[in-house]
């Protein structure tokens, strides 16, 4: 799939009804969502942690593809990372929506999702800085 088609598809994602509510999610909600997606789709997902934040929160990555648990020679791998800085939160929402759309598309036998997940292993880290998100959310809440 060309990058132009992928971009167009990602733009269309937001016009379709999604099972995941398109809003900001706190860290426990993200963790619960990733656990649920992984448990519901074991053939195409693998949830793993790359460590912990300074405050001990797991840094969860969801791998998606035909072989989500292992690298396969000749199959490209992509990594998407969001929320590197605590106040950069939109990427969290976008990556959760991408997960939702990829999984639903695969389950519904949508050609674009089948082609992408059958030919690529995708790693998604929705929040690289969960502590920073918590801190920025606390600051924002006290200002409101």
TrEMBL record:
Domain Peptidase M14 positions: 23-144
Keywords: Signal
Keyword Signal: yes
UniProt xrefs under Pfam families: Peptidase_M14
Keyword Signal: yes
Signal peptide: 1-19
GO CC entries: extracellular space
Transmembrane segments: none
Gene Ontology MF: a single term: metallocarboxypeptidase activity
An example Gene Ontology biological process: protein processing
PROSITE patterns membership: CARBOXYPEPT_ZN_1, PEPTIDASE_M14
Family recorded in the similarity comment: Belongs to the peptidase M14 family.
Name of the protein this chain belongs to: Peptidase M14 domain-containing protein
Biological source species: Perca fluviatilis
Lineage: Eukaryota, Metazoa, Chordata, Craniata, Vertebrata
